[in-house]
């Protein structure tokens, strides 16, 4: 009788592994392992315990992966079934990413002298540049949805051709917890896999600022600081809005940006706002932020939230009932970080109280986490309240009509949207009948002027704002 495919594949892998490792290690760590099934390029093996799985991941995953790719191709992946000691239940875990991400040593011309690496402690003179990338922030772990499709597609395009296309810089913007850092690092990780020789560096704006301040306190160290960053092939700066009000840091980054861009190096920037909405940043810097592609990440819709929950629970080896996933996705909607935090809290509750994860447990937890929170103030909600306040048909509100009462209502809505939400001017305009950011900015300035000169108008705005904050 012919053996099943999964058994044949695993036996072929074992033949390779047996020739490489010591016999005692093979008997201890590989003989108890059984192949369970194969689906596409994913082979599932069963291990006796979670400790067993973790040991294989830590000590043998590179060897197993190479053997598996010889059998199933470069897309091959491993999945574990961990048998629970107390019964017949099995928990499934995906293969974890353990590959260390390194840059090659940077070659310096002799005349450059001793260049200071701002990422190492003085005195430790080996110039090795740690890319500062988290292996878990990969494209494989990034869930695609309507909220991030443009940004993710641009990231994949850049990964295949860094610094060569029109998406340079890539400027990712959106509210907190929407995946900007994850996506930016995923691009860096993908580039390192495809172009190992490229020097990739991820750094937060706050850390860049600290390094700059340190460099200004020592003679000639600022030159070294600039020279160091000008050697990077792919520079990822997180939270560039934190450069606001720091002219010295902005000037240093301006020169680094200009040099890298002119040399065909890739820049990836993240911010909580679009360039047009950033304050206290030099115009020459803001204009350069717009040279490439601006991609906004929005809060995930329901279907994306469901996929995030499924992916996260699968990664953590948790089996969640469909009704629990749908319930959490319907109640926790603001950002990805909050969704993941809710899932962690649910797992902790289940473990500490020795209860199964079911709808009752999810409802009791969610009630404590979100039931007392006021509804999030969004552009849609502001428009709804404004229309109700002035008794305007929502379709007319979004139309092209220039009637005075409609124009006034739109201007108040856009003013409040800018003040009470994190939406960009462009996003507010799009949601207000497809208007552009210049129209939103004009509306905002008009309302600001009227608040100082028109008492009745000021009362409208105050009343609506109170209603939004109290409801």
Structural topology:
Elements: H1 5-18, H2 23-29, E1 34-39, E2 42-47, H3 50-59, H4 61-72, E3 77-83, E4 90-94, H5 149-160, E5 170-173, H6 180-194, E6 200-204, H7 205-215, H8 221-229, E7 234-238, H9 247-262, E8 266-271, H10 283-289, E9 293-296, H11 302-315, H12 322-331, H13 336-353, H14 359-370, H15 379-390, H16 394-397, H17 404-420, H18 425-431, H19 437-453, H20 455-470
Parallel strand pairs: 2-3, 5-8, 5-9, 6-7, 7-8
Antiparallel strand pairs: 1-2, 3-4
Helix pairs in contact: 1-4, 5-6, 7-8, 11-12, 11-13, 12-14, 13-14, 15-17, 17-19, 18-19, 19-20
Would you write up a description of this structure?
It is a single chain. The longest helix is centred in the last third of the chain and has 18 residues, at 336-353. The strands form two sheets. This protein has a five-stranded parallel β-sheet, sandwiched between helices. A four-stranded mixed β-sheet has the order 1-2-3-4. Helix 13 packs across helix 14 (359-370). It is globular, with a radius of gyration of 27 Å. The model is unreliable at 108-112 (pLDDT under 50). It has helices at 5-18, 23-29, 50-59, 61-72, 149-160, 180-194, 205-215, 221-229, 247-262, 283-289, 302-315, 322-331, 336-353, 359-370, 379-390, 394-397, 404-420, 425-431, 437-453, 455-470; strands spanning 34-39, 42-47, 77-83, 90-94, 170-173, 200-204, 234-238, 266-271, 293-296. A hairpin with a 6-residue loop joins strand 3 and strand 4. By secondary structure, the chain is of the alpha/beta class. The protein folds into four domains: 5-94, GMP Synthetase, Chain A, domain 3, CATH 3.30.300.180; 129-296, 3-Layer(aba) Sandwich (Rossmann fold), CATH 3.40.50.300; 302-370, Helicase, Ruva Protein, domain 3; 379-470, Chromosomal Replication Initiator Protein Dnaa, Chain: A (Orthogonal Bundle), CATH 1.10.1750.10. It has 20 helices and nine strands.
């Amino acid at each position: 009788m012919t053996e099943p495919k999964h058994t044949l594949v695993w036996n072929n892998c074992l033949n390779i592994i047996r020739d490489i490792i010591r016999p005692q290690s093979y008997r201890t760590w590989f003989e108890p392992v059984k192949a369970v099934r194969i689906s596409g390029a994913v082979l599932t093996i069963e291990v006796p315990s979670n400790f067993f799985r973790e040991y294989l991941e830590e000590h043998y995953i590179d060897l197993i992966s190479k053997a598996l790719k010889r059998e199933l191709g470069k897309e091959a992946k491993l999945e574990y079934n961990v048998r629970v000691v107390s019964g017949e239940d099995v928990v499934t875990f995906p293969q974890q990413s353990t590959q260390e991400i390194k840059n090659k040593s940077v070659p310096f011309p002799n005349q450059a002298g001793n260049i200071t690496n701002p990422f190492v402690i003085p005195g430790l003179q080996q110039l090795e540049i740690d890319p500062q990338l988290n292996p878990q922030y990969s494209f494989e772990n990034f869930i695609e949805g309507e909220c991030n499709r443009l940004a993710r597609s641009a990231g994949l395009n850049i990964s295949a051709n860094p610094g060569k296309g029109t998406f340079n810089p890539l400027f990712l913007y959106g509210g907190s917890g929407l995946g900007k850092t994850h996506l930016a690092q995923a691009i860096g990780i993908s580039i390192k896999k495809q172009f190992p020789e490229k020097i990739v560096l991820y750094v937060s704006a706050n850390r860049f600022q600290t390094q700059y301040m340190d460099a200004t306190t020592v003679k000639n160290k600022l030159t070294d600081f600039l020279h160091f960053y000008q050697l990077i092939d792919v520079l990822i700066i997180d939270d560039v809005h934190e450069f606001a009000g720091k002219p010295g840091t902005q000037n240093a980054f301006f020169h680094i940006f200009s040099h890298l861009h002119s040399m065909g190096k890739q820049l990836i920037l993240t911010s909580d706002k679009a360039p047009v909405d950033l304050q206290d940043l030099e115009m020459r810097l803001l204009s350069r932020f717009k040279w490439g592609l601006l991609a906004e990440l929005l809060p995930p819709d329901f279907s994306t939230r469901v996929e995030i929950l499924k992916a996260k629970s699968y990664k953590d080896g948790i089996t969640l009932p469909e009704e629990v996933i749908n319930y959490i996705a319907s109640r926790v909607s603001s950002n990805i970080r909050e969704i993941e935090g809710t899932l962690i809290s649910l797992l902790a509750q289940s473990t500490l109280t020795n209860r199964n994860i079911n709808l009752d447990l999810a409802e009791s937890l969610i009630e404590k986490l979100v039931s007392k929170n006021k509804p999030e103030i969004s552009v849609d909600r502001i428009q709804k309240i404004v229309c109700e306040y002035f008794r305007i048909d929502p379709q007319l509100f979004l139309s092209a009509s220039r009637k005075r009462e409609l124009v006034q209502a739109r201007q108040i809505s856009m003013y409040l949207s800018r003040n009470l939400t994190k939406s960009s001017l462009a996003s507010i305009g799009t949601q207000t009948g497809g208007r552009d950011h210049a129209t939103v900015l004009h509306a905002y300035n008009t309302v600001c002027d009227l608040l100082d000169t028109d008492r009745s108008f000021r009362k409208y705005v105050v009343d609506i704002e109170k209603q939004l904050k109290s409801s």
